From TrEMBL:
Annotated GO MF terms: transferase activity, transferring alkyl or aryl (other than methyl) groups
Species annotation: Anethum graveolens
Family recorded in the similarity comment: Belongs to the UbiA prenyltransferase family.
A Pfam match: UbiA
Compartments, as annotated in UniProt: Plastid, Chloroplast membrane
Keyword annotations: Membrane, Transferase, Transmembrane, Transmembrane helix
Transmembrane segments: 43-66, 78-100, 126-146
Record-given protein name: Homogentisate geranylgeranyl transferase
Chaperone keyword on record: no
Length: 167
């Protein structure tokens, strides 16, 4: 019901990027979860991670950016350096989400024959891999923030991401 309502709302918004986003999210969400042949992709670590990356890091970033530029601000859509950086950072963050989500389930995954990276490498190694990926994301944000021509943006971005990385 909620999936159908969101697609109807996407049509009502008269924004092709919003509708495309909703359709892609609906497809990958269904493929991830539905228990029918060739689907239930959450059983496969690679397919589960790809669903998360495609939806959260790529589709949502591109379509929301396109919608805001064209349908809210009325600007031509020019894919910017900041959009590319947002996609890169979100890819790193959702990769961490995809890895972290399997850490508590390692015993069940092992028992049911689901070969996640956590089953293969162990909880501790995957945890520290995730921390390393997060530090790369925050470090990238610090470098990009430091290259800003606006002093306040530079200070807030660099300081904020250094604080977040230290936590």
């Amino acid at each position: 019901a909620f999936g159908l309502m969101s697609i109807i709302m996407g049509i009502m918004f008269q924004s092709p990027p919003v509708l495309y986003c909703l359709l892609v999210c609906f497809f990958f969400g269904t493929a991830y979860s539905i228990d029918v042949p060739l689907f239930r992709w959450k059983r496969n670590a690679f397919l589960a991670a790809m669903c998360i990356v495609i939806v959260r890091a790529i589709t949502v970033q591109l379509t929301v950016f396109y919608h805001i530029q064209q349908y809210v601000l009325g600007r031509p859509v020019l894919f910017s350096r900041s959009l590319a950086f947002a996609i890169l950072c979100m890819t790193l963050f959702v990769t961490v989400i995809a890895l972290f989500k399997d850490i508590p389930d390692v015993d069940g995954d092992r028992d049911f024959g689901i070969q996640t990276i956590t089953v293969t490498l162990g909880k501790k190694r995957v945890f520290w891999l995730c921390i390393t990926i997060l530090l790369i994301a925050y470090g990238s944000a610090v470098v990009i923030g430091a290259s800003s021509s606006i002093l306040l943006s530079k200070l807030v971005t660099v300081t904020g991401h250094c604080i977040l990385a230290s936590i």
